[in-house]
TrEMBL record:
Protein name per the record: Xylanolytic transcriptional activator regulatory domain-containing protein
Keyword Ribonucleoprotein recorded: no
Cellular component terms (Gene Ontology): chromatin; nucleus
Keyword annotations of the record: Metal-binding, Nucleus, Repeat, Zinc, Zinc-finger
Domain Xylanolytic transcriptional activator regulatory: 76-270
Gene Ontology biological-process entries: DNA-templated transcription
């Protein structure tokens, strides 16, 4: 946590020192475990089964029931040690993935991800229904569950930003979704017991995922964190859908049935989140970072469903010129309802920065690096939409949805132009290349105020190059 804190305090040199120190400490722990193995390396040991002799005598209460409870609590404490190690590795994974972009850091990412994947397997990604008798036991179980699901999310986020498969597959996860924030944040056992007694038990991950794709009825509401986990799951599903499609179909296009299935899942995900007060869209501007991040990924999912920009989105060990060159080589998109829908989502992503201030929002607590990662594809899809809809002579003419989205984009960009110190309203026009360049410049301006992570600066440089290329007709 101190390593991440250094990044947010713009102390990157001290953060690097803390990163190296933490990495070395964890590596030493793994080495010591390896030395204790009698027959070669077996990885991180599974949770310890604690015997009666290992529990201090003064901690053992009289009576067989209390005696058993003490043994269970001690076993939970031993198992939770591995969870804390996973939490430490999670923070290192965040710093390694979003911080310095270099070959050395790429090796760190590979090592950390391998260790995390190993721990996830050994700790287990499944659980069974059980009645926990105490607040303390429930906290440990819920914390372990949230840790594993957060690691799944960072694996998917890395897949989003680097075009590599996630280290954890959807089919492996048999965990219950996280509880509501009110239950998690209960200040004491009495408050928790009251909330817990009145709360509905969250669905299992795989049950909720199945309902998103196959249910014809309303999806039960889940917590904001549960919704965050599920939108990552949908994005991973889209990632593998594209991989399978590229093998089975030379055009690399998913079937109509597959596209409709994911679209229905996205609509059900949105409906499920709208039922939850934590994720209410009416308070989206002032809501928690986890909610705004989920909405950003929801918008990205519509874009990913339409187009797989593949290696062009890899933000590791690349410079802006390589990314732009790969974007130029992508097949051009044609007018269709899915492009219009994706463009509408990308346009809507510009509204919160405009409402809160394009120079301010990057410093707000509900703004995160997720928006920066998504902004590259927001810009790309809008440039493609503008290329096929903003010409003076359109054949066939624009339909109502296309016209509505195009007018919305023009209005948003005009408002952004008014906010810029060097904005030129007199020179504003509606040529496709000009508007696409303005989209890229708008996002680059927003990201200019976000100086925490190096990956954000890389995206900003790419956006500036995109603006230069689109204005002269090169993208």
């Amino acid at each position: 946590m101190a390593t991440v804190g250094c990044q947010y305090c713009l102390e990157s040199r001290e953060g690097q020192r803390m990163f190296d120190l933490t990495r070395d400490v964890i590596s030493e722990k793994f080495d010591r475990r390896q030395m204790r193995c009698n027959s070669g390396y077996r990885g991180w040991e599974p949770p310890v089964q604690v015997s009666e002799d290992q529990v201090p005598r003064e901690q053992l209460s009289s009576g067989p029931q209390n005696h058993t409870l003490q043994l269970v609590k001690c076993q939970e404490c031993h198992a939770y040690t591995s969870i804390e190690t996973m939490q430490a590795l999670f923070y290192l994974m965040v710093v390694a993935s979003l911080g310095e972009v270099s070959q050395g850091r790429s090796r760190d990412i590979a090592t950390i991800q391998s260790l995390l994947a190993l721990l996830m397997q050994q700790q287990g990604l499944s659980e069974h229904a059980c009645s926990l008798c105490s607040w303390e036991s429930w906290i440990r179980h819920e914390s372990a569950r949230r840790t594993k699901l957060a690691i799944f999310c960072i694996f998917v986020l890395r897949s989003i930003s680097t075009n590599v498969p996630s280290a954890t597959l959807l089919a492996d996860i048999r965990l219950q979704l996280p509880c509501q924030a009110a239950e998690w944040q209960a200040p004491n056992a009495e408050s928790w017991e009251m909330i817990h007694r009145e709360s509905e038990r969250p669905l299992m991950f795989h049950d909720h995922f199945g309902l998103l794709f196959h249910s014809d009825t309303d999806i039960p509401a889940c917590s904001a964190l549960g919704g965050h986990v599920m939108i990552h799951a949908i994005l991973q599903h889209i990632f593998y859908l594209h991989q399978v499609t590229q093998i089975n179909d030379l055009r690399g296009q998913a079937s109509v049935e597959q596209l409709l299935s994911v679209q229905r899942a996205l609509k059900r995900w949105r409906s499920s989140c709208e039922q939850d007060t934590e994720s209410s869209r009416s308070t989206i501007v002032q809501s928690e970072p986890i909610v705004t991040n989920s909405v950003a990924l929801y918008r990205l999912a519509y874009i990913r469903l339409l187009v797989n920009i593949g290696p062009a989105r890899s933000l590791i060990e690349q410079d802006e010129k390589i990314i732009i060159d790969r974007l130029k080589r992508l097949p051009r998109l044609s007018r269709n309802p899915l492009l219009t829908m994706a463009a509408r989502q990308a346009m809507a992503a510009l509204l919160p920065p405009l409402e809160q201030g394009i120079f301010l929002i990057g410093q707000e607590r509900n703004w995160s690096v997720v928006h920066a990662i998504c902004s590259l594809e927001y810009t790309y899809i809008l440039s493609e939409f503008l290329r096929v809809t903003a010409a003076q002579e359109m054949s066939p003419p624009l339909d109502a949805d296309e016209y509505d989205v195009l007018a919305g984009i023009q209005e948003v960009l005009l408002e952004v132009e008014k906010c810029l110190p060097n904005g030129n309203l007199a020179g504003f026009h509606n040529a496709p290349g000009f508007l696409a360049a303005k989209v890229a410049l708008a996002w680059a301006t927003i990201l200019q105020c976000v100086r925490t992570w190096e990956v954000v600066d890389l995206v900003r440089r790419v956006l500036l190059k995109m603006a230069e290329s689109t204005e002269i007709g090169g993208l």
